[in-house]
Amino acid sequence: MFCSNCGNPVQEGQAVCLECGFALKGSAKSSGTGWFDALSHNGKRRGVVALVAWFFGLFGVHRFMMGDNKSGAFQLILTLSSVVLIVPIIISCVWALLDFFWIVSTDEDEFAALFTS
Q1: 3 in a domain, yes or no?
Q2: Domain for residue 39, yes or no?
Q3: Is residue 37 one of the residues assigned to a domain?
Q4: Angle between helices 87-105 and 46-56 (to 10 degrees)
Q5: Are 13 and 51 within one domain?
Q6: Which of 3-17, 61-75, 96-110 has the lowest mean pLDDT?
Q7: Contact 48, 36 (CB under 8 A)
Q8: Domain residues for 96?
Q9: Which segments of the chain does DSSP mark as H helices, in order?
Q10: Residues 89 and 53 both lie in one domain
């Protein structure tokens, strides 16, 4: 692979040419998409999914949003069963927090594959 600006050889996946400083095509810096705008496998933006997971993650809404209906329903039932028992709410809270941190800590490729069956 070669730099389109100066013609010097560059490695695959390199973001900037080390010779001239030109931003290479296909790199994360030149793609124009930021962390917030990364898309999931079904076109949902990461920022929106992260906010939904933070505010409504206890009910599994973010999992329904991402198309993972089985675990979303299980998380919702787990949370609603905490009306009678205290342990399910603790499990559901930990699960929601882990999902939130998983959403915000992955790169674009990993985020695109989250919550797929």
Answers
A1: yes
A2: no
A3: no
A4: 160
A5: no
A6: 3-17
A7: no
A8: 46-112
A9: 46-56, 61-65, 69-80, 87-105, 108-112
A10: yes
Angle between helices 69-80 and 87-105 in degrees, nearest 10: 140
- What are the tens digits of pLDDT across the range 22-81? 777 654 443 445 677 777 777 888 889 999 999 999 999 999 998 889 999 999 999 999
Residue 40 near residue 62, CB atoms below 8 Å: no
DSSP state of 85: -
Of residues 100 and 116, more confidently modeled = 100
The answer to pTM > 0.85 is no
Residue 12 counted as domain residue: yes
Q: At a CB cut-off of 8 Å and minimum separation 6, what does 16 contact?
A: 22, 23, 24, 27, 29
Question: Are both 56 and 105 inside the same structural domain?
Answer: yes
Amino acid letter, residue 82: S
Same domain, 55 and 23: no
Token pair listed for 114: 């989250």
| d(C-alpha 114, C-alpha 98), whole Å | 13
